[in-house]
């Protein structure tokens, strides 16, 4: 196995054992990034010389003083909303083309303190305001969308061009691309991971979290990101996979409405596997679902427009058309509309807290359909309703942003075209330990956990599904462009 194929945990173990050096690992990942970047466009910039210098320093530090921790010498990418002193933070936008960060973000500082090696900045949908990341291609099929807005981070990890990466999540922007590219994405509890030095989309909905190949890796990164705020995250993962006594909520409504048969079959099969591991399955009613879209957009749009107020007026032509129209729409919303959305959000949080009292986690699809073909604008569901691709991707992820609870996406198989499907595990506030425990227990039952995307950077259908739990029914969703 080549070094770039190693998961974070496996690479850390090899470095600890003296079987692999940070320099060898970083060289391998950089070579992989160079090989796939022309096909994928995951990175805004790759700073190869600086990464090799950092890997050399890490090797010397480990030889002299030992490992600081599992991230020491591990190469990673940062979504290009995250400030690193002296480096550009472009937000994948012409608006920010000349912006140079004058200080490190808190998360960049914590990762540097952990000894991680920065490879470069990964692409985002412009200012994180979208669910497709149009400049980046899906790691499993370059004719499909990468998902967004952390598409570059998810694609880099799925392709082996970064051992892990950070993304941000305002309405699903970590979980959506992670699910569409067959990797793990964690949106922690709101404000658990500090947002200082990270370009905002919507300050009261924004979250920062890891994109990794395995749940175990996500726990290791979360340890470094939270510092002393939530210690011992990774320690819980050393267990036998027994979920006896744990209650898994299975939604009766909303989360399985308007999803493809492929997605429903794979997620329900994964939920049954949790039951086989000892978990008790409990039917739950998701509250106030009719207000999800109105609250998500009613909060996000005015907050985003407020953040961009000056540059939108000074240089509107520098924004991409899809982002500009959303920012301009925010100027039409009244203060009363925003306050009503926040009031409804408070009611949703309370209702979700009551619902979560009955269970430890809720298990549901991450997205209702797999990666759409590039250029597809909408989908028609079996009930005759038509929904934009972006709205379909945000629909199942937005509730965790509105309520601020932790949510993890884990790969659970592929559809009949061989495209990845994700299961979302949603927990109590500050319930990351439980969410990760359940995700890890499921992950340990799969022979393909942590796999790289087959044929990353190539155009065409990926390898047909072979993993257990991969469904075969034909989807009833019809593409409309």
UniProtKB/TrEMBL annotation:
Domain Amidase residue range list: 24-436
Similarity remark: Belongs to the amidase family.
Region (Disordered): 447-481
InterPro entries tied to this protein: Amidase, Amidase_CS, Amidase_dom, AS_sf
PROSITE patterns given in the database record: AMIDASES
Chain segments annotated as coiled-coil in the UniProt record: none
Pfam families according to UniProt: Amidase
The protein, known as: Amidase
Composition skew (Pro residues), residue ranges: 462-474
Top-level taxon of origin: Bacteria
Organism annotation: Streptomyces lasiicapitis
């Amino acid at each position: 196995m080549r070094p770039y194929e190693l998961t974070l945990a496996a690479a850390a173990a090899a470095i600890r054992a003296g079987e692999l050096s940070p320099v060898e690992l970083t060289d391998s990942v950089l070579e992989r990034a160079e090989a796939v970047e022309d096909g994928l466009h995951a990175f805004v910039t790759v700073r190869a010389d600086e990464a090799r210098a950092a890997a050399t320093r890490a090797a010397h530090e480990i030889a002299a003083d030992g490992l600081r921790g599992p991230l020491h010498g591990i190469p990673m990418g940062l979504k290009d909303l995250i400030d690193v002193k002296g480096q550009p933070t472009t937000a994948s936008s012409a608006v920010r083309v000349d912006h140079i960060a004058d200080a490190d973000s808190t998360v960049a500082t914590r990762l540097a303190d952990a000894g991680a090696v920065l490879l470069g900045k990964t692409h985002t949908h412009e200012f994180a305001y979208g669910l497709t990341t149009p400049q980046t291609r899906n790691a499993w099929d370059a004719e499909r969308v990468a998902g967004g807005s952390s598409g570059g981070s998810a694609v880099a990890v799925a392709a082996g061009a970064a051992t892990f990466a950070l993304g941000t999540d305002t309405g699903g922007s970590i979980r959506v691309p992670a699910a569409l590219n067959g990797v793990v994405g964690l949106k922690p509890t709101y404000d658990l991971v500090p947002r200082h030095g990270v370009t905002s989309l919507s300050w009261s909905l924004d979250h920062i979290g890891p994109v990794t190949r395995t749940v175990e890796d996500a726990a290791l990164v979360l340890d470094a990101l939270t510092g002393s705020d939530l210690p011992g995250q990774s320690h819980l993962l050393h267990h036998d996979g027994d979920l006896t006594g744990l209650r898994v909520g299975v939604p009766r409504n909303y989360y399985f409405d308007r999803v493809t048969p492929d997605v429903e079959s794979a997620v329900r099969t994964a939920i049954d596997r949790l039951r086989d591991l000892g978990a008790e399955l409990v039917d739950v009613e998701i509250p106030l679902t009719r207000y999800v879209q109105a609250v998500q957009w009613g909060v996000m749009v005015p907050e985003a427009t407020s953040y961009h107020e000056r540059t939108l007026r000074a240089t509107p032509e520098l924004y991409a058309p899809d982002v500009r129209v959303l920012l301009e729409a925010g100027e039409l919303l009244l203060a009363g509309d925003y306050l009503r959305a926040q009031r409804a959000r408070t009611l949703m949080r309370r209702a979700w807290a009551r619902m979560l009292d009955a269970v430890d986690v809720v298990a549901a699809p991450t997205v209702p359909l797999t990666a759409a073909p590039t250029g597809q604008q909408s989908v028609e569901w079996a009930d005759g309703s038509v929904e934009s691709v972006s709205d379909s991707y945000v629909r199942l992820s937005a509730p965790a942003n509105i309520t601020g609870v932790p949510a993890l996406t884990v790969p659970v198989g592929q559809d009949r075209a061989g495209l990845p499907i994700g299961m979302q595990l949603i927990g109590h506030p500050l319930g990351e330990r439980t969410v990760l425990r359940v995700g890890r227990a499921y992950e340990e039952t799969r022979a393909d956990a942590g796999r790289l995307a087959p044929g990353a950077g190539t155009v065409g259908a990926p390898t047909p599904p072979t993993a257990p739990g991969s469904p075969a029914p034909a989807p009833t969703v019809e593409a409309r462009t």
